[in-house]
């Protein structure tokens, strides 16, 4: 049986792999030229939530020793008979749904480099919410690691001046505002969900089913409202192909991996894993896609991110030992 400490780092590694694959696959799916209409982002979000709920239901079945009756009783006890606890998940679910739509708005108005740099502000917002909502105390070195991380990711994502991308002032402003709102919502929702998970003995998979139910409702209503004309013309699954399905699967798996990371680690470490995945995506783009040429600034940024990751991890170990003794 894998210990929680080992599970924490394994889940972080899987999260890096999943995030890297999702970024590359999503980028390809949104730039792929096809004869028919492009898939709706709102539809992909809803499909991912349905798939995630299905996966969580299977995992609950496994935890129930493959007994359908025991699983049904568990879900009834934890969801139906505890409406107050269930309703608590409506808050992060609504915010997560808003966040997912904001990110698509941002990607439609910003180049990838500007988007990725700005979106890393969610690490800082997560840290601030962790301190204010969870009462966490970050040492001076941990705050320094956050600053190093921000500086490193920024340097890594500095666009190549020899290949400038022209954007209108209006679209640039809309994109930046969308990212900033997504950073704030991501930090709050993530810490709120972490607080709920760590204050209950409930299964993380049951919690994700509750979260998925609300996310599905919010996402489906949003899809009907904002994409009603496209839905009438070509239906919910317009533009779906193997690449789109891969994006949906990776999004659903990502939600499960993030849940494990939050349960056994915390949101700030999740942010570090995401930052490392950006570097991995850039390297894959260079060696496989051959559309990126690293510079000295890139290597300096990568070094700062790696140093920040080790610095933050080193500071956490003594704190966890003290907590166990207490």
TrEMBL record:
GO molecular function terms noted in the UniProt entry: pyrimidine nucleotide-sugar transmembrane transporter activity
Protein name per the record: Solute carrier family 35 member A3b
Subcellular location, principal: Golgi
Signal peptide as annotated in the record: none
Keywords: Golgi apparatus, Membrane, Sugar transport, Transmembrane, Transmembrane helix, Transport
Cell compartment(s), UniProt: Golgi apparatus membrane
PANTHER family per UniProt: NUCLEOTIDE-SUGAR TRANSMEMBRANE TRANSPORTER
Family per similarity comment: Belongs to the nucleotide-sugar transporter family. SLC35A subfamily.
Transmembrane segments: 39-62, 140-158, 170-193, 205-226, 238-262, 269-289, 295-314
GO CC aspect terms: Golgi membrane
InterPro entries in alphabetical order: EmrE-like (IPR037185), Nuc_sug_transpt (IPR007271)
Topological type in the membrane: Multi-pass membrane protein
